[in-house]
Amino acid sequence: MEHNDESKLCIVIVPKTKKVRRITIEPWLPKALLGGIALFSILLYFSYNWISTSTHRLEEEYEDKTYITRKLEGEIEELESIGKDKDQKISNLMASAEEAQDKIDEADLLLKDVERLQRQLEKKAGITTASRSSMVSRNLALRNLEPKKSLGDLKGVLDEKEKELENFIVEIDNRFKYLESIPNGWPAHGRLTSRFGKRRDPFGGGGKFHKGIDIANSPGTDVKAAGAGVVTFAGSKSGYGRTIEIRHNSEHSTLYAHNSKLLVKVGERVKRGQVIAKMGSTGRSTGCHLHFEVHKDGKPMDPLKMLNQ
Fold it and tell me: Are residues 157 and 125 part of one domain?
């Protein structure tokens, strides 16, 4: 390799058998080549830095996205768990609602049974409860309501029914006491020898009004209370002999005369059919018998109208 006068770079190639060859290189070419290498190196350096920075940034973004993804997955799992819990609660609520509706239906049937029994008792006792018609319509409407509202309405119906039944029990008890007090039970076994009304005086002297009936039987026959009540008189009475009087209710009272023995005292409460005396012939009497009177509102009435009821 040598330099000529014009500062050119010359390369001589000497092969073994062929002609010598000479290559001439312009002096600027090595400089250009070095400059290109330097420029390529600079570009490579900056490209590496850019790629490295971008890679680092992408890795950070990837880590952030991975963290966010994991966080979202955790939240999704938590939401799924909450959803399952809510589904379970909804299922439990539906089961509770069905159970509540079953109880409402059962209570409604029981109320209807109570209503029916109450009607039967009222019919037998001859009384009515004015508040029932509105309550029945409320009972029938229970099935058309939501369970929660139905339970509230059911409680209201049951509270009203409880009050009504309490009043009904008092009323029916009073009614039964009244029915028990009506003097329509036969006071003694025996033969009816004299009726209520005008009759011939057995002791002579013409006609006389007979205020009761006479039932004849053997001495010592049981004399029973015709109805429940309180003894207002127990002792001897002119013409009647040993006598008992019973006040049954605000309307009725009874009298049992000519007894041989008295078994109750004044103020004593007696039951229907209770033995209160023994049949005899005390007082103004023609033989062993019971003289029985029924008074309504203070006036004597035909006992047979009561006894035949």
Answer: yes
By CB neighbour count within 10 A (0-12 exposed, 13-18 middle, 19+ buried), where does 5 fall?
exposed
3-state helix, strand, coil in the chain (%, to 5): 50, 25, 25
pTM for the full predicted model? 0.57
Residue with tokens 């006792």: 125
79 is a domain residue: no
What whole-number distance in Å separates Cα of residue 225 and Cα of residue 183?
A: 8
Is residue 22 classed as helix, strand or coil in its secondary structure? Answer: strand
The residue range of the domain holding 283 is 191-307
pLDDT above 60 for 277: yes
Are 202 and 172 members of one domain? no
Position 271 pLDDT exceeds 80: yes
In a domain? residue 77:
no
Give, for 232, the enclosing helix (H) or strand (E).
strand 229-237
- State the pLDDT confidence band at 267, using cuts at 50, 70 and 90: very high
